[in-house]
Write a structure and sequence with these properties.
Largest sheet: 5 strands, antiparallel
Number of helices: 6
Number of strands: 10
Shape: globular
Helix content: 25-40%
Strand content: 15-25%
Radius of gyration: 19 Å
Distance between the termini: 79 Å
Structural class: alpha+beta
Protein backbone atom coordinates (compact mmCIF):
# COMPACT_ATOMS: atom_id res chain seq x y z
CA UNK A 1 0.00 0.00 0.00
CA UNK A 2 1.46 3.35 -1.02
CA UNK A 3 2.03 6.11 1.53
CA UNK A 4 -0.39 9.03 1.12
CA UNK A 5 1.23 12.22 -0.13
CA UNK A 6 1.40 14.76 2.70
CA UNK A 7 1.17 18.52 2.30
CA UNK A 8 1.30 20.69 5.41
CA UNK A 9 -1.70 22.92 6.18
CA UNK A 10 0.58 25.96 6.00
CA UNK A 11 1.64 25.06 2.45
CA UNK A 12 -1.96 24.46 1.38
CA UNK A 13 -3.01 27.90 2.63
CA UNK A 14 0.03 29.49 0.99
CA UNK A 15 -0.79 27.86 -2.35
CA UNK A 16 -4.45 28.89 -2.16
CA UNK A 17 -3.47 32.48 -1.35
CA UNK A 18 -1.02 32.60 -4.25
CA UNK A 19 -3.66 31.22 -6.59
CA UNK A 20 -6.17 33.90 -5.57
CA UNK A 21 -3.65 36.76 -5.73
CA UNK A 22 -2.59 35.83 -9.27
CA UNK A 23 -6.20 35.78 -10.42
CA UNK A 24 -6.93 39.19 -8.91
CA UNK A 25 -3.75 40.73 -10.34
CA UNK A 26 -4.87 39.85 -13.87
CA UNK A 27 -7.92 42.13 -13.51
CA UNK A 28 -8.04 45.81 -14.38
CA UNK A 29 -7.80 48.15 -11.42
CA UNK A 30 -10.50 50.00 -9.48
CA UNK A 31 -10.13 53.17 -7.44
CA UNK A 32 -12.48 54.30 -4.67
CA UNK A 33 -11.91 57.68 -3.06
CA UNK A 34 -13.73 60.23 -0.96
CA UNK A 35 -14.57 63.63 -2.43
CA UNK A 36 -16.36 66.66 -1.06
CA UNK A 37 -19.91 65.38 -1.48
CA UNK A 38 -19.44 61.65 -1.09
CA UNK A 39 -17.54 58.62 -2.36
CA UNK A 40 -16.38 58.17 -5.97
CA UNK A 41 -15.88 54.82 -7.74
CA UNK A 42 -13.77 54.61 -10.90
CA UNK A 43 -13.01 51.35 -12.73
CA UNK A 44 -11.27 50.55 -15.97
CA UNK A 45 -14.07 48.65 -17.70
CA UNK A 46 -14.97 48.59 -21.40
CA UNK A 47 -18.17 46.57 -20.88
CA UNK A 48 -21.50 48.36 -20.58
CA UNK A 49 -23.34 45.24 -19.42
CA UNK A 50 -20.97 43.63 -16.88
CA UNK A 51 -20.63 46.15 -14.07
CA UNK A 52 -17.78 46.22 -11.58
CA UNK A 53 -19.54 48.96 -9.57
CA UNK A 54 -23.11 48.61 -8.32
CA UNK A 55 -25.65 49.91 -5.83
CA UNK A 56 -26.36 47.63 -2.88
CA UNK A 57 -28.80 49.69 -0.82
CA UNK A 58 -29.91 53.27 -0.23
CA UNK A 59 -26.51 54.76 0.65
CA UNK A 60 -24.29 51.71 0.12
CA UNK A 61 -22.36 50.64 -2.98
CA UNK A 62 -20.08 47.82 -4.03
CA UNK A 63 -16.96 47.71 -6.22
CA UNK A 64 -14.99 44.62 -7.13
CA UNK A 65 -12.17 43.16 -9.20
CA UNK A 66 -11.43 39.57 -10.16
CA UNK A 67 -13.72 36.88 -11.55
CA UNK A 68 -17.02 38.42 -12.60
CA UNK A 69 -19.21 35.40 -11.80
CA UNK A 70 -17.76 35.18 -8.29
CA UNK A 71 -18.11 38.81 -7.26
CA UNK A 72 -21.53 39.01 -8.93
CA UNK A 73 -22.70 36.15 -6.69
CA UNK A 74 -21.47 38.11 -3.69
CA UNK A 75 -23.14 41.32 -4.88
CA UNK A 76 -26.51 39.60 -5.28
CA UNK A 77 -26.18 38.03 -1.83
CA UNK A 78 -25.39 41.44 -0.36
CA UNK A 79 -28.45 43.02 -2.01
CA UNK A 80 -30.67 40.25 -0.67
CA UNK A 81 -29.23 40.60 2.83
CA UNK A 82 -29.74 44.37 2.75
CA UNK A 83 -33.33 44.07 1.51
CA UNK A 84 -34.20 41.42 4.10
CA UNK A 85 -32.64 43.39 6.96
CA UNK A 86 -34.32 46.63 5.91
CA UNK A 87 -37.71 44.96 5.51
CA UNK A 88 -37.54 42.96 8.74
CA UNK A 89 -36.18 45.72 10.97
CA UNK A 90 -35.51 49.25 9.70
CA UNK A 91 -33.73 50.74 6.70
CA UNK A 92 -31.32 52.44 9.11
CA UNK A 93 -30.20 49.01 10.35
CA UNK A 94 -28.63 48.26 6.95
CA UNK A 95 -25.00 49.37 7.08
CA UNK A 96 -21.85 48.79 5.06
CA UNK A 97 -20.26 47.18 8.12
CA UNK A 98 -23.04 44.57 8.34
CA UNK A 99 -22.67 43.66 4.67
CA UNK A 100 -18.86 43.66 4.86
CA UNK A 101 -18.97 41.29 7.85
CA UNK A 102 -21.26 38.92 5.95
CA UNK A 103 -18.91 38.96 2.95
CA UNK A 104 -15.93 38.35 5.25
CA UNK A 105 -17.57 35.25 6.72
CA UNK A 106 -18.44 33.89 3.28
CA UNK A 107 -15.00 34.53 1.77
CA UNK A 108 -13.25 33.13 4.85
CA UNK A 109 -15.29 29.93 4.78
CA UNK A 110 -14.61 29.43 1.06
CA UNK A 111 -10.89 30.13 1.43
CA UNK A 112 -10.41 27.67 4.29
CA UNK A 113 -12.63 24.98 2.78
CA UNK A 114 -11.00 21.90 1.33
CA UNK A 115 -13.49 21.11 -1.42
CA UNK A 116 -13.61 24.29 -3.49
CA UNK A 117 -11.13 26.79 -4.84
CA UNK A 118 -10.81 30.22 -3.18
CA UNK A 119 -12.64 33.14 -4.76
CA UNK A 120 -10.42 35.29 -6.98
CA UNK A 121 -12.00 38.57 -5.88
CA UNK A 122 -11.30 41.74 -3.98
CA UNK A 123 -14.15 43.96 -2.84
CA UNK A 124 -14.85 47.40 -1.44
CA UNK A 125 -18.15 48.08 0.33
CA UNK A 126 -18.73 51.78 0.96
CA UNK A 127 -21.42 53.82 2.69
CA UNK A 128 -21.89 57.57 2.45
CA UNK A 129 -22.81 59.48 5.59
CA UNK A 130 -24.43 62.84 6.20
CA UNK A 131 -20.94 64.33 6.61
CA UNK A 132 -17.50 63.26 5.36
CA UNK A 133 -16.72 62.00 8.86
CA UNK A 134 -19.67 59.62 8.58
CA UNK A 135 -18.42 57.97 5.38
CA UNK A 136 -17.10 54.41 5.63
CA UNK A 137 -15.16 52.14 3.28
CA UNK A 138 -14.35 48.48 3.90
CA UNK A 139 -11.91 46.48 1.80
CA UNK A 140 -12.27 42.69 1.69
CA UNK A 141 -9.74 40.26 0.27
CA UNK A 142 -10.02 36.69 -1.02
CA UNK A 143 -9.41 35.12 2.42
CA UNK A 144 -12.10 37.07 4.24
CA UNK A 145 -9.77 39.68 5.72
CA UNK A 146 -11.54 43.01 6.14
CA UNK A 147 -10.06 46.43 6.81
CA UNK A 148 -11.51 49.90 7.16
CA UNK A 149 -10.03 52.38 4.68
CA UNK A 150 -9.87 56.16 4.79
CA UNK A 151 -9.53 58.63 1.93
CA UNK A 152 -8.86 56.21 -0.90
CA UNK A 153 -8.32 52.58 -1.79
CA UNK A 154 -7.07 50.81 -4.95
CA UNK A 155 -7.46 47.16 -5.83
CA UNK A 156 -6.68 44.73 -8.63
CA UNK A 157 -4.08 44.99 -11.40
CA UNK A 158 -1.49 47.59 -10.42
CA UNK A 159 -3.00 48.38 -7.00
CA UNK A 160 0.36 48.97 -5.28
CA UNK A 161 1.48 51.51 -7.88
CA UNK A 162 -1.87 53.29 -7.77
CA UNK A 163 -1.79 53.46 -3.97
CA UNK A 164 1.69 55.00 -4.10
CA UNK A 165 0.54 57.62 -6.62
CA UNK A 166 -2.55 58.47 -4.58
CA UNK A 167 -0.51 58.77 -1.41
CA UNK A 168 1.51 61.53 -3.05
CA UNK A 169 -1.35 63.34 -4.79
CA UNK A 170 -4.61 62.78 -2.91
CA UNK A 171 -5.98 65.53 -0.66
CA UNK A 172 -9.20 65.67 1.30
CA UNK A 173 -12.34 67.49 0.14
CA UNK A 174 -11.60 67.35 -3.58
CA UNK A 175 -14.42 68.50 -5.88
CA UNK A 176 -16.04 65.74 -7.93
CA UNK A 177 -14.40 66.63 -11.24
CA UNK A 178 -10.96 66.99 -9.73
CA UNK A 179 -11.29 63.69 -7.85
CA UNK A 180 -12.39 61.93 -11.05
CA UNK A 181 -9.52 63.32 -13.10
CA UNK A 182 -7.06 62.26 -10.40
CA UNK A 183 -8.45 58.72 -10.34
CA UNK A 184 -8.35 58.39 -14.14
CA UNK A 185 -4.82 59.78 -14.29
CA UNK A 186 -3.42 57.33 -11.72
CA UNK A 187 -5.21 54.42 -13.41
CA UNK A 188 -3.49 55.37 -16.67
CA UNK A 189 -0.07 55.88 -15.11
CA UNK A 190 0.00 52.59 -13.22
CA UNK A 191 1.33 50.17 -15.85
CA UNK A 192 3.45 47.02 -15.94
CA UNK A 193 6.41 48.81 -17.47
CA UNK A 194 4.72 50.20 -20.58
CA UNK A 195 4.04 53.86 -21.32
CA UNK A 196 1.27 55.66 -19.38
CA UNK A 197 -2.12 55.57 -21.08
CA UNK A 198 -4.76 58.24 -21.60
CA UNK A 199 -8.00 56.47 -20.67
CA UNK A 200 -11.11 57.54 -22.58
CA UNK A 201 -14.71 57.62 -21.29
CA UNK A 202 -15.44 54.43 -23.27
CA UNK A 203 -12.84 52.62 -21.15
CA UNK A 204 -14.27 53.75 -17.82
CA UNK A 205 -17.07 52.87 -15.44
CA UNK A 206 -17.78 55.73 -13.05
CA UNK A 207 -20.30 56.06 -10.24
CA UNK A 208 -20.66 57.84 -6.92
CA UNK A 209 -22.49 57.87 -3.64
CA UNK A 210 -23.66 61.48 -3.42
CA UNK A 211 -24.69 62.53 0.08
CA UNK A 212 -26.82 65.36 -1.38
CA UNK A 213 -29.20 63.06 -3.27
CA UNK A 214 -31.29 62.05 -0.27
CA UNK A 215 -32.12 58.42 0.46
CA UNK A 216 -30.98 56.96 -2.89
CA UNK A 217 -27.41 58.24 -3.03
CA UNK A 218 -26.05 56.07 -5.87
CA UNK A 219 -25.61 57.56 -9.33
CA UNK A 220 -23.74 56.62 -12.52
CA UNK A 221 -21.91 58.98 -14.84
CA UNK A 222 -22.11 58.25 -18.56
CA UNK A 223 -22.16 60.05 -21.88
CA UNK A 224 -21.98 63.83 -21.98
CA UNK A 225 -22.05 64.12 -18.19
CA UNK A 226 -18.92 61.99 -17.87
CA UNK A 227 -17.22 63.89 -20.72
CA UNK A 228 -17.90 67.16 -18.93
CA UNK A 229 -16.47 65.93 -15.63
CA UNK A 230 -13.32 64.66 -17.33
CA UNK A 231 -12.73 67.96 -19.13
CA UNK A 232 -10.03 70.01 -17.32
CA UNK A 233 -11.11 73.48 -16.21
CA UNK A 234 -10.13 76.22 -18.64
Amino acid sequence: MSTPFYVSPEQIMKDRAEFARKGIARGRSNVVLQYTDGILFVAENTSRALHKISEVYDRIAFAAVGRYNEFENLRVAGVRLADLTGYTYDRRDVTARTIANAYAQTLGAIFSGATEKPYEVEIVVAEVGDTPEGDSMYRLTYDGSVGEEHGYVAMGGQAEQITTLLKDRYTENLPLGEALRLAVDVLGRATDGSEPRALTPDQLEVAALDRNRGRRAFRRFVGAQLDELLRPPS
